[in-house]
Amino acid sequence: MVLKFSITVLGAPRSGKTSLLSSIYKQFDKVVDNSTTLEIKPAHLEATQLSNEIDNLKSAFNSITKMPLNNADVVPSTTLISQDTDTDVYEKNIFTNVVNFLFLVKGKEEKSLTDREYRFNLGKKSHKPKLQLVLRDYPGEQLIENTEDVINRVRECNITIITIDTPSLMVENDQAYKATYPCENNNLPEHIAQIIDEAYTDTVDKRLVIVAPVKCEEWMSTFDKSKKLTDRINEKYKCLFDVLSSDELHEKVAVVITPVETLGGIVYAYMDNKEGYSPRFIKKNLSSTYDPKYCDQPLRYILRFVIKRFLENSGAWFTLFGDSKSFTNAIGNFTKECLGDSSVDVKANGFLVVQGSNLL
Known about the structure:
Largest sheet: 8 strands, mixed
Oligomer: single chain
Strand content: 15-25%
Distance between the termini: 25 Å
Order of helices and strands: EHHEHHEEEEHHEHHHEHHEEEHHHE
Low-confidence stretches: 78-113, 181-185
CATH topology: Rossmann fold
CATH superfamily: P-loop containing nucleotide triphosphate hydrolases
CATH architecture: 3-Layer(aba) Sandwich
């Protein structure tokens, strides 16, 4: 029995959603200790797709000079695949009546042209996986063109990752920039807040919202810059945080800010206003290579949130994973290293648990 758990990734066009997922995949081997019994692996097809995306990201470092790169160089667009798949899937929302979580869904699973799924299996080494994380990525244009569809997808998922185009966020107060910045390329915080508000109306499930600024290397380089990044997120996404901190939701929704350096060796340089929204990036130095950082953090928070829901019902945990203390300890150690969580005394600039630490 494999329990499928879906996660929606939201973000404006070219904000870096696929780059974020690719970088998370890239760092799996670095964050899971080979000495433990915990194993996290992408499904075979997803491994191939994400490897191709990583190759695209690495190509930004091919130049032997520090010539400026544009946004398309550092954020490849989402490529869509249309397919219908016949599947036998054991599936259940683990947060609604978790005691009766064994539920068989058999038949045809239709995949539209609007999204792409990346599946990651979690389990004990040398055993069949017990849990599958399904991260659903789709073009940012869908936020505007198919808002109702996006709302439904967010409603179906207990975890939502919101990617933020950091250069856009940090320079949008500049008057010269605002004069040429096309609204369709904005991070769309108000629109995302409306989507979350409608999707979470009357929710009974506990949820996690991960706010992930990407292309943020320049603003993670010093304490002062990372503080400015956090302050700007709190300012520009106040509309979203107000929704999530409402009387109806504040006890049901955990919110964390986890910056992710999806490239590592390339930083924002300046904005070329002649072409509207046209950020330019440069390599830190001539020998810089693809070196993403903090990509493990969204995954750590996701697993911490999911496992806590299981532990709230020990019967569900035992049915899936048995009484293996070594496996339980391996997951516990993995999720303890969540940056920004004051309860585990692991702090880092730019990371913050906004609300709902008791849900994590």
